[in-house]
Amino acid sequence: MNLRWMEAVLPLGIIAGMLCVMGNAQYYIHRAAHGRPKHIGNDLWDVAMERRDKKLVEQASSSG
């Protein structure tokens, strides 16, 4: 029988499962710490603009 490929299925399944577990762990840890999911591609500029926008909205709501 030519079923040698089946020998690789179990280790590949374990590796794929562990990658999924690690990715989901990062997602849930970040969501628990920050209250929302992490935006992909969010760099320091985006963080600075988000802080600025939040500050401007707070200033506008407190003065009006």
What is the total tally of β strands? 0
Uncertain runs are none
Gross morphology is rod-shaped
Given the structure, what is the number of helices? 2
- The SS-based structural class is mainly alpha
Mean pLDDT across all residues, rounded? 90
**Rounded Rg:** 22 Å
- Helicity range: over 70%
The proportion of residues in beta strands is: under 5%
Distance between the termini: 79 Å
Pfam families: MWFE
Protein name: NADH dehydrogenase [ubiquinone] 1 alpha subcomplex subunit 1
Subcellular location: Mitochondrion inner membrane
Membrane topology: Single-pass membrane protein
Describe the structure.
Keywords: Electron transport, Membrane, Mitochondrion, Mitochondrion inner membrane, Respiratory chain, Transmembrane, Transmembrane helix, Transport. It is a single-pass membrane protein. Belongs to the complex I NDUFA1 subunit family. It is found in: Mitochondrion inner membrane. With 64 residues, the chain is mainly α. 77% of the residues lie in helices and 0% in strands. The radius of gyration is 22 Å and the shape is rod-shaped. The N and C termini lie far apart (79 Å). The relative contact order is 0.06. The model has no long low-confidence stretch (mean pLDDT 90).
